[in-house]
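User: I'm putting together a teaching handout on how sequence relates to shape, and I'd like one worked example. Could you take HTH-type transcriptional regulatory protein gabR from Dorea longicatena, show the sequence you're using, and then write out its predicted structure as C-alpha cells right after it?

Assistant: Happy to. First the sequence, then the C-alpha cells directly below it.
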Amino acid sequence: MNELTINLDSRSKKPLYEQIYDYIKSDIQNGRIPYGEKLPSTRALAKHLEVSRSTVELAYEQLLSEGYIESAPYRGFFVAQIDELYQLKKEEKKSERKIEKKKVYQYDFTPNGVDLNSFPYNVWRKLSKDILMDDRTELFRTGDPQGEYGFRSAISNYLYQARGVDCTPDQVLIGAGSDYILMLLGMILGTEHMIAFEDPTYKQAYRVIHTLGYETVPVAMDRHGMKIQDLESTGADIAYVTPSHQYPTGIVMPIGRRMELLKWAYEKDGRYIIEDDYDSEFRYKGKPIPALQGYDAEDKVIYLGTFSKSIAPAIRLSYMVLPKDILKAYRKKGSFVNSTVSKVDQTIVQHFIEEGYYERHLNKTRALYKNRHDVLIEALKPLGDICEISGEHAGVHILLTFKNGQKERNLIEKAKKADIRVYGLSDYRIRKEEKEKATILLGYANMREEDIKEAVAILNQCWRK
C-alpha cells in the first residue's frame, strides 16, 4: 500500500496526527487494511497528505504502542495480527441503574438540613490562600494515618473546653465522614460484639453497623433515654447512644441515667458505650450539656463527633476519641489504613479552630437557628389543640405528637399534597409500633423564617381537614 486517502480537517479541534491515527485504526479494525499489509512510509504519507513528517510519525507511534501495527527494521510498518478486534463495535452502554428524580418541594422541613448560606466563604478562601501561598510540598504527601497531629491537637483542645471531653491528641482519629469512622471502628473492634441501639435511632449509623456484620438489638426508651434494665436484658456489650440530644426524639439524658449507663459499662469487661455527639453545638436554653465521656472514670466511652452539622456536610470531616485499650487495638489492626482526609483540608480546619473562626461561626449559626426555632414555635401555637411540641431548645428539629387520633401517614400525605415535605418518627424506628401516636419531625435549619411561617399556616389548614 503506497498511499492512504485520508480527508484531514485542518479546522477541527482534533490534532492532525490523531485524525490520521483514528483513520488507520478504524480501517484495521474493520478489515479494510488486512493483516500483514505494509503501510506507506512516514515520508511518503506525509508528502501525500501534505503534512509534516513528525505528524505522521506521531500517529504511527500511537498505533505501534497500541499493537495495531508492527515495525520491521529497514522494511517499514506492517499491520499486526489482531483478528479479535476486527468485529469490534462501539456499543452505547446504558446504565442499568434507574436514576429517580426526587420531587422538589416548595417547603421541606428536613431534620438533616444545614444553612449553607451562612458558610464562612471569605474566611475559608483566606485560610486556603494562606495555607497554599507557599510551595508546601509536605501538604501533598501521604500524612499520618490517624490524622495530622496539629489538627488532632486542635480538636482535643476544643473538645475539652466546649464539651468536657478528657483526651489527648493521640486518642483522636480523623476520618472522611461518620460512615467511614464507623467502618474503621468496626475493623478495630471486630464483629464478635452485640450492639444495642436506642429505638427510635439514627438509622444511618444503624444501617452501617448492621451491614458490617454486627448483631444489633433495639432498646426501648423512656423520657430519660435508653432504659438500662432493658439494655441489661438484651445481652449486648456495646450501647450506641446520643445522650446530649437524642436523635430523633430530642431527649437530653439526665445525669442520673448517664451514671446508670456508665455503671452498666463498668460491670463487665469488654462493655463499651459509643457516644454520638452529632449536634451538641446547638442548644438554645441553658448551658450545653457536657459529654458523657467527661464523666467516664474507667475509659469505657468511645466518643464520636463531626463537623458536618456545624460547618457543612461536604467538608466530610469526622473524628472519634478512643479509650486507651481500644487505641492499642487500633495500632495493631487499623493503623495501616491511610487517612481519608487530605492534609490540606485538615490544615484549613485546624486554623479555622485555632484562630477563633470556628467559635465565631458557631455563635452566628446558633443565633440564626435560634431565631428560626423561635419563629417555628410561635407559628405552631395555633396547632396546640391537636398536637404537643417536644424536643425543642436544642438541635435543628422539633417533634409534633398528635392527640386527635390522626395517622402519621395521613398527615404526611396531606402535607405532600400541599407541596410540603414533613417526616414521620416511625421512619426512625427499628421496631414498628402500630399503637404509637402519630409524631412528625419538623427541621428548620435551611428554611427561611418567612417560609416557616407560610408553611406552618398551610399545615394548620390541611391537617384540620
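A couple of points you could highlight for students: The radius of gyration is 31 Å. The chain has three domains: 16-85, 107-112+364-462, 135-360.
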